[in-house]
Amino acid sequence: RDGLELSILAGYPVTAYPTGAAEHLRREVPDATGVEIFAEGASDPNFEYISTLGADLLVLSAGWWDTGSYGNDRMQQIAPVLPVGKDFTPEWRKVMSDFLTGIGRSDRAEEVLAEYDAHVAQVRPTVEPLMAGKKVAFVAAAEDQIAWFQNDFR
């Protein structure tokens, strides 16, 4: 999902993404009706199929890329590869800004942060009273596992 999220933020034209990426992000993909969604596992990519997508750039998770699970040499034969997400920390603003600045899109970083801050300011009066004194857990559950997200990385 790292690749899809950062590609959307960068304003890249997304032509395909694996079903392993969060489906809720589909609404964020501009012109999603023409976007190919394919069932693909990181540990067993179908190189022949991926090569038919005509991608000019493959944006992949650095975590998987660093393990070699993607078949890195074969992926690089299909298109240039941009591994992303290696330096994710709770400082998401910095991670996003560093990524967009690194690809020459610092203007986009400023734009995205301004949009985010404006949206938060707009919904805060409605959400804040509803959440006062409450705790929120962000949890993802699958058939064989559960993951939770917290800001304490000890």
From TrEMBL:
Domain spans labelled Fe/B12 periplasmic-binding: 1-154
Domain of life according to the entry: Eukaryota
InterPro entries reported for this sequence: ABC_transptr_periplasmic_BD
Protein name: Fe/B12 periplasmic-binding domain-containing protein
Protein source organism: Fusarium equiseti
UniProt lineage: Eukaryota, Fungi, Dikarya, Ascomycota, Pezizomycotina
